[in-house]
Every structure is written in structure tokens, then in C-alpha cells.
Amino acid sequence: MNPPLLQFNDKGIYCAQANVYIDPWRPVKNAIITHGHADHSRWGHQNYITHHTNVPIIKHRLGAISVTGKNWNETFVVNNVKFSLHPAGHIIGSSQVRVEYKGEVWVFTGDYKTEDDGIAVPYEVVKCHTFITECTFGLPVFKWTPQTEVMNSINRWWSENKAEGKTSILFGYSLGKAQRLLKYLDTNIGKIYTHGAIENMNNVIRPMVALPETTLITRETKKEAISGNLVLAPPSAHGTTWIRKMTPFVTGTASGWMAFRGARRRRAIDKGFVLSDHCDWDGLLSSIKATGAEKIICTHGYTDIFSKYLRELGYDARTEKTQYEGENAEMNKEEDLEKIIP
């Protein structure tokens, strides 16, 4: 029996025929990278291949690396194995990886979402025999509200805070979530200030995406200038001395985990907005069905529960362990799982 086209080992997802890894977590010679988040694009590989819009992002994060950029649907062949990158819709430059050898087709999604956020190239269905899918939010409880409604809620929250003389501090990942929020914030309400980590990433992405004007917070920034406006910051800034000059302030965070009862309270956040860069339950199921794949491999997320459900639907589904975390790192999943599943 021939070995599977893609194998999971201690370094990552490996195509032995091509001697190529996809999103490896240990240093390898040849690495195809789906997107710029740190759990999927790690330092130390000899050669990187990724979508060309992700090249400046991973160079910014990883420094001087040997990287080749590819276009969507551009086929590149390594030892008779055909590879191509297809939009994943997760964040800007995020890709699915299609792998074909002797008529057999596998697709690895990386992280993905099906809602068009107006920044990332929208998710593309890629037909395949075996589909490797994340299931970060692989529970029926996760059903996303349309982005337009969430952003309207965020802008109302900011406007109300300003009317009360309070600064709004909104937390979101510096890559992906921050730019998604920024694009739809209503600058008629006030000015948008940024933490350095977000401003630096904005500068990388601005040549590719139109974003509103922002002002970097520095040591010279006066408290009076910030008052009543909105500050966009990474979650790591919460509870630090950096935000003290914003007093009085109200905090908010945008995450899929805000769908969990108690998540906002445990993070000591004043307001939670349910907004994720990953598929919800329906998005996962519709994506899997659309691929036509019979074999499904579930990684990072609620893998056991989700794969069991897929088997009940008739799929040949199993799980594989990876070192990808994504939004999983934000929450203690097991603690919340007990609250929604008897």
C-alpha cells in the first residue's frame, strides 16, 4: 500500500514525494506557508513558499528569509507533485494548499472562514478527495452574526462611550483582526489611535488594503488627545501600564470566543463582540460538503467532537494532532465546554 500523499509527523504536514512540508512547526528545508500568523509561519526554514501578498507580512515577522511568492491558482511542480494556493478568506494573504499526485488530490485549509470580510480574498471551494480542515469553532453553538451587524454594534458602543467622556479600548490580534476592525470603524465618531504592534502591521498591509487613518500612541501622546476616541490594541496590552494614560476607559474585545458565557468576565473585559476570522459550525459543514471529499482530517479545535459528527454523516473522518493554536490560545476550551454540553 502506498503511503498517504500528506503525512503528519513531528515536524509538520509532510509530502514525502516532494520533500515539502506545509506550515511546519520545526525547521525544515522546504516549507509552504498558508498565512502569516505565528503558529503557521515559523522561523528557521531554509526555503519558504507562500502567496505573494503574504510575503511582506512574514518578512516583517520573521526577518531576512528566503521566500518565493505565488499567485492564486498558480501551479508549481516539485518531483511530479502539483501544488497550488487558493484563497482561504482567513486574513489577507491566507491560502489553502492543493496537492495533486497521480490523480489524487488533497487540500489543506490552514485557517479559513467563509464570510467575505472585504479585506481577504474570499474563500474558494477546491474540489478534492481528502480535505484537511481546522475546526477551531467546531461546535453547533458557534453561529456567527453577519459582520455588518457586529461592526454597527461596535460603532454604537464607541459613540456611547464618547458621549460619556470615556475612551474606547478595543482589543484584536495585530494581524488580521485589527485590520478587519479598522476598515469598518466609523471615523465620523472620532480618531483612531493604535498600539505600536498594530501600527507596525498596518504599515505593512496599507499598500495592499485601504485602511482609515490612524495615530500611533507614543510617550508624547497626551491623555487629553486620546479622551473619547478609540484605541486599537492587541490582547496582550490588556492590564498593562500602557493603557493607564487612557483613564477613564471602557474595554471591548472582538473574538469568536465571546459566544461563550463567562468569557468576557474571565478576561475582565467590559464588552464582548462575537467576531471571528474562522468558520462557524455551518461554515465548516458547508465547506466540507462543497469539496466533494470523502475523507476528512480534523486538526486544531474541537477535533474529537467534530470528527465524530462527520462520521455520523457518513464521512471517513479522523483527527490529527498539530501545533497550530490560533484563537484556541485565547480560551480555556474545556472550562467552557462543560457549560454548553451537559
Question: What's this entry about, in short?
Answer:
This protein has 342 residues and is of the alpha/beta class.
Low-pLDDT residue spans = 329-342
Number of helices: 9
> How many extended strands?
19
Q: Using only CA atoms, what is the Rg?
A: 21 Å
Shape category: globular
List SSEs in N-to-C order.
Answer: EEEEEHEEEEEEHEHEHEHEEHEHEHEH
Structural class: alpha/beta
Bin the strand percentage.
Answer: 15-25%
Question: At the third CATH level, what is the topology name of the largest domain?
Answer: Metallo-beta-lactamase, Chain A
Q: At the first level of CATH, what is the class of the largest domain?
A: Alpha Beta
GO molecular function: exonuclease activity; ligase activity; RNA endonuclease activity
Protein name: Ligase-associated DNA damage response exonuclease
EC number: 3.1.-.-
Keywords: Exonuclease, Hydrolase, Ligase, Nuclease
